[in-house]
Amino acid sequence: MEIRQSIVQRYEEMHAVLNEDLRITLSHLDMEEKAAASALETLMERNGSLIQEIEQDLSTLDEALDQTVTETNIMSFLSAMEHQDLEDMSRERVVQDKADPISIDLDEVKAEQILSLTNDVLRLISSQTPVIRKLIKSYSSVMYLDPQTAHPKLVVSPSGDSATYTKTWQQLPDLAGRFDTTLNVISSQAHSRGLHYWEMDVTGKTYWELGVTYPTIPRKGSTEDCWLGRGDDSWCVEFFDGKYTAWHGGVPHHLPVTKQFSRIGVFCNFVAGSVTFLDADDMMPLYSYCEGTFSDCLHLALCPGHDHNGTNSRPIVICNPTSPMPMSD
Question: What is the pLDDT of residues 263-283, one digit of tens each?
């Protein structure tokens, strides 16, 4: 009886792991659908007259089509499908009843073997979930920060993988690409095709901004467009005063989360023209933007913020995979 209970428990644990994985995967799909719907709504607003012409053409086409499927045929089809579904459910119940560990009468040796196998299966399932983590991490790219773009109060590490605020204004060349008001720095590399994923460690920080940007983001002066997400050139998530906000085009989207994350992921999909921010600990999506098509290459962009009397002194660190530095594409 004890072994049987252990086997049942392993199956329940597998079920819990798979249910959580399903929840995370569906959350990604829901977020992407919302982003795509938002992008479509914007596109429809910008192209109202074109949509009206398309609707008129579709209406004309509908009138010209022959109605080859009658209501009776449809009901017959649905009735047949319902009958087939009932038969499938009946067969499924039979299979489930036969596969129920409680209903199996085993000798002790065989029971021990099954328990061992279920332990192996549980470990395998746990190691492979969430599935979305495996998928997104397969697109991990190496990114290094460009010190020639960093605000003079930011210190970029020699390895180029972190940025830290300093109270000292460093005497650096006033290059055209250097931010002189906002505490920003962008990556040396840029991408314009494919799928790319980056993770940033924000452990212990009380304020930060991170995201992606076109190379055309303004670098000089106090204009709001220099801030990440405040213009049409960049997309970001901001953490400030315990609250998270997604920004693009100067429009804030307040996120209904309160957890203080240790790692934030950025998934950039040039195929779909989308960028998704997510909690890298469990791969739950925070917010997605869908542009359809990006008009330029994208750099990773960071703002570690002021130290706030020592409460925000830690750096933002890019968690690069161990691989050679990539070329821009």
Answer: 999 999 999 999 999 999 888
Structural domains in the chain, CATH included, are 2-129 (no CATH), 147-318 (2.60.120.920)
Q: What is the model's pTM?
A: 0.70
Written in H, E and C, the secondary structure of the chain is: CHHHHHHHHHHHHHHHHHHHHHHHHHHHHHHHHHHHHHHHHHHHHHCHHHHHHHHHHHHHHHHHCCCCCCHHHHHHHHHHHHHHHHHHHHHHHHHHHHHCHHHCCCCHHHHHHHHHHHHHHHHHHHHHCCHHHHHHHCCECCCCECHHHCCCCEEECCCCCEEEECCCCCCCCCCCCCCCCCCCEEECCCECCCEEEEEEECCCCCEEEEEEECCCCCCCCCCHHHCCCCCCCEEEEEEECCEEEEEECCEEEEECCCCCCCEEEEEEECCCCEEEEEECCCCEEEEEEECCCCCCCEEEEEECCCCCCCCCCCCEEECCCCCCCCCCC
The string of pLDDT tens digits covering residues 37-61 is 777 777 777 777 666 776 776 666 6
- How far apart (Å, rounded) are the C-alpha atoms in residues 192 and 268? 10
